Amino acid sequence: MDRRDVLAALGPGSAAGLAGCVGFATTSDSTNGPTRELTDGFGRTVAVPSTVERVVAVGPGALRQVAYLGATDRVVGVETEDESVRTAPYNLANPGLQELRSVGSAGPNAGGNAEQILAADPDVILYYGEPSRAKTLQSRTETPVLGLRIVPIADRPAQETMFATWELLGDVFDERSRAEAIVEFIEETVRDLDARTRDIPASDRKRAYAGAVNYKGAHGLLTTGPEFAPFRWTGVENVAGDVGTDADSVQVSTEQLLVWDPETIVLSGANLARAREDVGKNPEYESIAALATDETYTVLPRSSYHHNYGSILANAYFVGTRLYPDRFADVSLRSRTEAIFETLLGEPLFGRLTDEYDAFERVGLA
């Protein structure tokens, strides 16, 4: 008897007893149908059903990738997310997701609840997190677990990592053409951004600072991203680019920000209040060129339970229109943003996101 046969025989409420039970088959095949072998993002070979109709996605960013593939109709359970994540683009575009049964709590160390996953009865579990946990989760649920690699997409190697993730999901859902369309769209968009500014001499490039960057929660003015994709793609010099860290975000000192003295500051609209509070407590910030001239702007959060790729692309166009208006004179930010989200998530979202986050605005901090 496989897992599904046991659940059917025992009836409702049987999942609790099965979590951790060892009385039935222990292969990766959770159904009686044919399977195929796929190599996941962790290099594991996993046998998955030939046809996948029921999935759950566990860990930061996992559910978002299902939304990009247009496969949310196959989701049978979701992590319980807090209110800050429910306004992420993938949730706004798919409002019914959070009405599905829970398969555990969301969070940076989320690993899924085996009992709740069993009750949801998925064909496959998509997982992002510590690779060693994938094997444990598969053993406890008797369900194939595919590990996903989810990374920033600022440079080409990172983009290729995400392309491989989307291609893997294209195989899982038999949506290869959809995966190819996502890859092509990202490539075309980044090429367009780069082509507009690549010939700007280094001496003429704008110097800017990205503050109040979201990463595993909300942060204030001194949290920045050494690798901030909208700056890289639009020929903007990131004053924090030489900070010696491989982390997605880092907190810098007040003294360092004063030394950098950026002429432009870009803030996450989700954390504008925190940035204003920081400036209120530190009047010395008002000497920074960007604050003295009100060259401070808000953008969409780059992260809401991991990277919001659509928001990052839209933010790049906003940065370009503000810092190099002559190079982006033909760009309607609203139209371009709507096209980005319609392509990735099937909904335009511009109005809903700018209302939610007060993004794409010039703001005063001093």
Concise account of the structure shown:
With 366 residues, the protein is an alpha/beta fold. Helices cover 40% and strands 14% of the residues.
Overview of the molecule:
With 366 residues, this protein is of the alpha/beta class. It has two domains: 3-175, Rossmann fold, CATH 3.40.50.1980; 206-362, Rossmann fold (3-Layer(aba) Sandwich), CATH 3.40.50.1980. It is 40% helix and 14% strand. It contains 16 helices and 14 strands. The chain has helices at residues 3-10, 15-18, 62-68, 83-86, 89-93, 114-120, 131-141, 156-173, 176-197, 229-233, 254-260, 272-281, 289-292, 309-323, 333-345, 350-357; strands at residues 35-39, 45-49, 55-58, 75-80, 102-105, 124-127, 145-147, 207-211, 223-224, 237-238, 250-251, 264-268, 296-299, 361-362. The strands form four sheets. It has a five-stranded parallel sheet with strand order 5-4-3-6-7, with helices on both faces. Strands 10-8-12-13-14 form a five-stranded mixed sheet. Strands 1-2 form a two-stranded antiparallel ribbon. A hairpin with a 5-residue loop joins strand 1 and strand 2 (45-49). It is globular. Mean pLDDT is 90; it is low at 8-12 and 16-30.
Structural descriptors:
366 residues, alpha/beta, Rossmann fold, 2 domains, five-stranded parallel beta sheet, five-stranded mixed beta sheet, 16 helices, globular
